[in-house]
Amino acid sequence: MEFYIQLVISGLVLGSIYALVALGFAIIFKSTSVVNFAQGELLMFGAYYCFSMVVQYKIPWFWAFLLTLVFSIVLALLVERLVLRPMIGEPVISIIMVTIGLSSVLRSIVTAVWGTQIQVYEPPLFPETAVNLMGIPTSQVYLWSFGLAAVLLGLFGLFFKFSKAGVAMRATAFSNQVALSMGIPVKNIFALAWCIAAVVSAIGGVLIGSINGINIQLGHFGLKVFPAVILGGLDSILGAAVGGIIVGVLENLSDGVLKSAFGLQGIKEVAPFVFLVLILMVKPYGLFGKKEIERV
């Protein structure tokens, strides 16, 4: 039983980070109707930038973390203004291909600057000593990561529901034309969406880096999160959070249980997609996605 509880705990931690990154996917899609396939690279870039601040320049964690968030915002604004804003009005598939190209460019920059070796944050962000949780020794990095991710998801949820900018983003997601007629600067909302997506991705990258270290494979994290986004509903903020938690727990349980019982290898990477297909057969728009009905 202790083994399964440990799997669930680590799955919740991983799932909470998935939920943060999935939030970035959902925000960009709701605001711009674009699926950003460079989300994983934004996560990787933020993790490596924070590594440089902490390890190479010996900046204290608090200031390094703030600088990482500022850097992520500047990077998002540059990408939105120079790469994506000129694509407004172009076919969606063209914009998606641009994000795929952007992911390759960011990956190449990271490889050229930091290399491909696994790097470790030193000093660590969280204490390394374990604490007793329900009689089970649990690393503090898991508890802090889960707590921070949960708080951030709650704050972003309140932001979208009650803040003026959040309401404007929801109006833009409903209809760009209606938002423009109400005086909402839609282009600024697009930029804000990219900034939030970059910030949550950078935070997710730092948290994952604190647990497993960082390397070039972090760029694939976006594709691992994609099933969580589709599962929850591509246009649902709540769905992104729930889908991330479900996928994180499912990954760990399938990897632990099926590997130990049947000796299956690689099941951790496959299980979320199998579960996703089963769910979409019943709910094609995801658990919380909005069903679109077109009348002719």
Binned strand content: under 5%
Helix and strand string, N-terminal first? HHHHEEHHHHHHH
End-to-end Cα distance, whole Å, is 56 Å
Strand order of the largest sheet: 1-2
The secondary structure category is mainly alpha
By DSSP (H or I, 4+ residues per run), the number of helices equals 11
**Biggest sheet overview:** 2 strands, antiparallel
Number of strands: 2
Radius of gyration: 19 Å
The helix content, as a percent range, equals over 70%
Mass-distribution shape? globular
Low-confidence stretches: none
Mean pLDDT score: 86
Question: What does the model show?
Answer:
With 296 residues, this protein is mostly helical. Helices cover 73% and strands 3% of the residues. The protein has helices at 2-32, 39-56, 61-84, 92-114, 140-162, 164-174, 176-181, 186-212, 221-232, 237-262, 267-282; strands spanning 130-133, 136-139. The model has no long low-confidence stretch (mean pLDDT 86).
